[in-house]
Amino acid sequence: MTIMYKEFDDEGYYHGTLLSTEQINDWRKRILEFYFRKYENLETSKKQSLNPAESLHELDILKLITQKSLVAALDQILGDDWLLIPDFNIHINSLYLNGWHVDAGSELMLMRENFSPWQYDDPLEKIIDPSFRQIKCGIYLQDNEPDKTGGGIDYVSKSHHIYKLTGIRKLDYQLARIISYIHTKFGSHTPAPTKAGDFLIFDSLLKHKGSHPAEEFFDDISDLERDLKVLDCQNWPLNDIKIVIYFSACTRKKGAEYLKNCHYRINKYGKENPKAQFWREITEISYPKSYTREQILLLQNSQVVPL
Ligand SMILES: O=C(O)CCC(=O)C(=O)O
Ligand SMILES: [Fe+2]
Prior knowledge:
Elements: H1 3-11, E1 13-17, H2 21-39, E2 49-50, H3 52-58, H4 62-65, H5 68-78, E3 82-92, H6 105-113, H7 123-128, E4 134-140, E5 153-155, H8 169-186, E6 190-191, E7 198-203, E8 208-210, H9 221-226, E9 243-251, H10 255-269, H11 274-284, H12 293-302, E10 305-306
Parallel strand pairs: 3-10
Antiparallel strand pairs: 1-7, 2-3, 3-9, 4-7, 4-9, 5-6, 5-8
Helix pairs in contact: 10-11
The protein binds 2-oxoglutaric acid and fe (ii) ion.
């Protein structure tokens, strides 16, 4: 077991540095220019992230994902045979969109809705099996400062372990729900220690949410959670806008499962529902068809294989 893997497994995440100050400023500028040019007239609550196709084609985030230090960390955490999931996504001030959650949400949904003791396919067994590991990786373009403007995520320490307490899946699932509720409501929430230019690789079972900015920035934080319009980037100082580049990766075994879960979500919401759009886009990006020649070369040279 490598040191990186051990750190990831113990705490639920691993973090490292990736970009210089110059690169951070350059990426912030490029992303915001694109965002404001394209979405100037759109209500911000409707557009808080750049979707997979935009992130891939307009901003070419593969240039970041294929950096040596990041690929090396993913190799250690996922083993040599992992797949890049094209859920490419650049968040722009989407600080309050998500409450506490785990990214393996659809597996847990499936567990709640469909799994019965006589069914062979057991979603929870798969997600706790290390050979079905899935991670999310964020590249943060500002410090995480929960007492100021936010900028990263908060997490519940070691919460990715609570799905394997007894080995009896249905029981583990219910126990995890109760423990998770108590932890998130009364336990300590730790801000991830990311600085501008860092990457954070976290387990898709780790409970997390975007860090809130300090309350003094707003009249009433509870209003803020209800009223997404206050997120309007146009009125924020440019340097305080939270920008994160997100993508996921999984072990090869988990790849088909990931797509199955995408389709499950699409069907659940209905194809035309805007909520399903993100998942649809992921399923529409295929390798090598959706990638340019340069991107394919970049992927090959860095030995990154997309789903
Ligand atoms: O607000 C954030 O940075 C967290 C985003 C997140 O958890 C997600 O996209 O799944
Ligand atoms: Fe998340």
